[in-house]
Amino acid sequence: MKLSETQQMLLPRLPGVDRMLETAKADPFFRDIPLSVVTRSARTVIESLRADIIDNRAGITEAELSDASVIEKIRESAADAMFLNLFRVINATGVVVHTNLGRSLLADEAVANLQNVAGRYSNLEFDIGTGKRGSRYRAVEDILCEITGAQAAMVVNNNAAAVLLCLDTLARGKEVVVSRGELVEIGGSFRIPDVMARTGAILKEVGTTNRTHMKDYAQAIHEATGLLLKVHTSNYRVEGFTASVPLGELVALGKSQGVTVMEDLGSGTLMDFSRYGMQYEPTVQESVASGADVITFSGDKLLGGPQAGIILGTKAILDAVKQNPLTRALRIDKLTLAALESTLRLYRDPEKAKDAIPTLRMLTLPLTVIRRRADRLYEMLAGIGDLRLNLTQHDASSRAGGGSLPLLDIPTVCVGMQVVGMSTRAVESFLRHHTLPVIGRIEADVFLMDVRTVQEDELALIQTAVATLLLKGIGP
Ligand SMILES: *Cc1c(COP(=O)(O)O)cnc(C)c1O
């Protein structure tokens, strides 16, 4: 490649890493920044300028290669590197179990227990009674059986792991009968057929997309059958001319034919949402009562706990699952256990659980409370007293998210915002990049904040972010 005259002129002007590090040494800005960070930033900035020159990107001037200009870029890069990569955000999307924003928030009780166990030793695998080695799963086994009615229980890293582990234990090299209407793909490329292929189980599809009958399952059973699997269609519904076989009937078929029946419940709620005027969602307790041999579900979807995959079932099956060598690879850590145990204990009193577990509280928040919160946010933003701010209120719908209750529109109130002299996209982007990012959405060119998922103590933080936007985002 032949360099142009300009390129040949610019390249030698590029300062070297060593010289920039010398300059940085004398600069008080870098005093508290580790040398490894400064060195890396210097290298990155200089390399990127070199690439800009070589790729002939327009706009590179000699002035940009001055020491002062380069050191400024190194400052920005180093400051950036000092921020954590995983940080808190304000969820103003109204999607409660927001997969991209961390799914469920933990209850205060769970956070407190987490803190307690995290920085100190614990009896994780120590039996206080005998002074010998104990089982880490014991912490949640009893409480899971108590609140669900299951015979035995255990927990792994997430529900995907739970499904994988159960299929591997129960159906490796055997056929698994699944309705065509239930071959689910969950976001993040978890597909039932693919997971099954991984475990060496053989998928035996029965029925059609919209209708599957008892006789479809019955006809599919032969000596190679390892499992009848029912998958909860978490994130979609087949509507119209449909038929599926209820879990109870599938269990009866399994019992009569001596075939194990498993259900992947997905979200797995322990609370009956229909009691709060919401769409009915089958509960874990109902699945257990139906007599399924094994049931799996997530810890951080509608349950509202930490990421985990919960497995309930007969003692014989759970014993076999625990002995599978895969279990060790999929095991949960003590922080998850601590948070999960505390969350599950809250379910001993369902009314208390509804208010103490953030996911349940946000989903069942009365519209009157939401309206009041939206009014407060509106007033706080109006209180900034900036005439460029156009505020509105909108009736809208929140979503459960996390592939749960997909058809449920939960009535909510959003605060809408437009800023004179600034595009709505720029408003959204500024708030998203704020020190404490505020994540909302744009609809009909208005920036909308759904207050259902905004915590009461975050309203003032949104006010600060918007005040900063008005100060810095646009000129006076
Ligand atoms: C969400 C979901 C999974 C995966 O659960 P994770 O906890 O995200 O691993 C599996 N099956 C169904 C039906 C689901 O809804």
Word description of this protein:
A seven-stranded mixed sheet has the order 5-13-12-11-10-6-9, sandwiched between helices. Strands 2-14-15-18-17 form a five-stranded mixed sheet. It folds into three domains: 5-82, no CATH class; 90-97 and 363-472, Aspartate Aminotransferase, domain 1 (Alpha-Beta Complex); 108-356, Aspartate Aminotransferase, domain 2. The protein has helices at 5-10, 17-25, 35-54, 67-82, 108-118, 138-148, 159-171, 192-199, 214-220, 247-257, 284-290, 315-323, 326-329, 334-346, 350-356, 358-363, 367-382, 424-433, 459-473, and strands spanning 90-91, 95-97, 126-127, 132-133, 152-156, 175-179, 185-186, 190-191, 202-206, 225-231, 260-266, 294-298, 309-313, 389-401, 410-419, 438-439, 441-443, 446-450. Helix 7 (159-171) crosses helix 8 (192-199) and helix 17 packs parallel to helix 19. A hairpin with a 2-residue loop joins strand 17 and strand 18. The model has no long low-confidence stretch (mean pLDDT 93). With 476 residues, it is an alpha/beta fold. The protein is globular. Bound molecules: pyridoxal-5'-phosphate (PLP). Pyridoxal-5'-phosphate (PLP) binds at residues 158-160, 163, 184, 186, 190, 231-232, 234, 264, 266-267, 298, 309, 403.
Question: Remind me, CATH topology of the largest domain?
Answer: Aspartate Aminotransferase, domain 2
Q: Main beta sheet, described?
A: 7 strands, mixed
- CATH level-four homologous superfamily name of the largest domain: Type I PLP-dependent aspartate aminotransferase-like (Major domain)
Bulk shape: globular
Question: Can you give the helix content as a percent range?
Answer: 40-55%
User: Which CATH first-tier class of the largest domain would you pick?
Assistant: Alpha Beta
| SS class | alpha/beta
Share in β-strands: 15-25%
- The total of helices stands at 19
Query: Whole-number average pLDDT?
Result: 93
Bound molecules: pyridoxal-5'-phosphate
Which strand order do you get reading across the main beta sheet?
5-13-12-11-10-6-9
Low-confidence stretches: none
Integer tally of domains:
3
Distance between the amino and carboxyl termini: 48 Å
- The number of strands is 18
- CATH architectural category of the largest domain: 3-Layer(aba) Sandwich
What Rg, in angstroms, do the CA atoms define? Answer: 28 Å
